[in-house]
């Protein structure tokens, strides 16, 4: 049985006894009236926290590029909205770096410095920071998350990449230099990281030499003159890489240098060019 009574006025907060007398319709049914009494309690409506914290990444900017071994400062803010008094405040924050469709992940949460101390009430902004080193080569995503006290999670994400600098060395690097068709040219280059520091040799390095007419040749590390070798300094870092290349025809050549990335395979890091002519120099 159910019923409505639209004539009941809005009642203030409190407890009310309600009595109902049920009488059979005249000529229908049998038995005496059946009175029912129960209590109705009216309370103030309770506001519900329905929104997650707002998370904003301060640094680094999206699509930032860093060099291998470069320091990176991670910073983000989080604030749970007031929601007319329903907000419960930020209760926890997290951050992590990922790549390779989730196959690579570094948890930054243990390194986060959070101010003010958690938990906080609604509408109070917290700032989380961490200092890390760009120790991997590839494309990455930084994700920051924050929870409120009822379990809502807000998040923000930004992308960044880490690589190395590639620079040609003489004779390729000599401006305006052309090389004679049929000659063997020592292609030399150096690879550096943050602040120009030399790095340990990339044993799985690869170069692609692209020539006239769409010809390409790939070369890898090895002991032969046509392979990639390197020279080391006293600390064991590679100060230059070299491969000898016999120029087959006249035209422009591009050398693309790739090194192993965090997701496996090789990641292109840079390129340089040289020109061959029938009237070139001794090389």
Automatic annotation (TrEMBL):
It comes from the Bacteria. Gene3D superfamilies: Immunoglobulins. This is Uncharacterized protein. It comes from Desulfobacca acetoxidans.
């Amino acid at each position: 049985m159910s019923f409505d009574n639209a004539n009941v006025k809005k009642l203030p907060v409190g407890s009310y006894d309600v009595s109902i007398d049920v009488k059979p319709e005249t000529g229908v049914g049998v038995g005496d009236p059946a009175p029912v009494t129960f209590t109705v309690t009216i309370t103030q409506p309770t506001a519900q926290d329905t929104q997650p914290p707002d998370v904003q990444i301060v640094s680094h900017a999206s699509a930032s590029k860093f060099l291998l071994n470069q320091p990176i400062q991670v910073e983000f803010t989080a604030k749970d909205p007031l929601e007319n008094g329903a907000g419960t405040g930020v209760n926890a924050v997290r951050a992590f770096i990922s790549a390779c469709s989730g196959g690579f992940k570094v948890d930054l949460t243990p390194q986060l410095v959070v101010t003010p101390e958690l938990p906080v009430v609604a509408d109070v902004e917290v700032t989380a920071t961490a200092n890390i080193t760009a120790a991997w080569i590839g494309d990455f995503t930084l994700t920051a998350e924050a929870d409120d006290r009822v379990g809502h999670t807000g998040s923000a994400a930004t992308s960044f990449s880490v690589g190395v600098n590639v620079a040609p060395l003489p004779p390729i690097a000599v401006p305006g230099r052309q090389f004679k068709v049929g000659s063997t040219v020592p292609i030399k280059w150096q690879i550096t990281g943050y602040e120009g520091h030399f790095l340990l040799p990339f044993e799985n390095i690869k170069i692609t030499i692209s020539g006239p007419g769409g010809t390409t040749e790939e070369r890898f590390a090895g002991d032969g003159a046509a392979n990639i070798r390197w020279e080391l300094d006293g600390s064991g870092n590679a100060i230059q890489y070299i491969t000898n290349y016999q120029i087959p025809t006249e035209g422009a050549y591009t050398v693309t240098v790739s090194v192993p990335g965090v997701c496996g395979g090789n990641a292109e890091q840079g390129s340089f060019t040289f020109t061959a002519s029938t009237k070139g120099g001794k090389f």
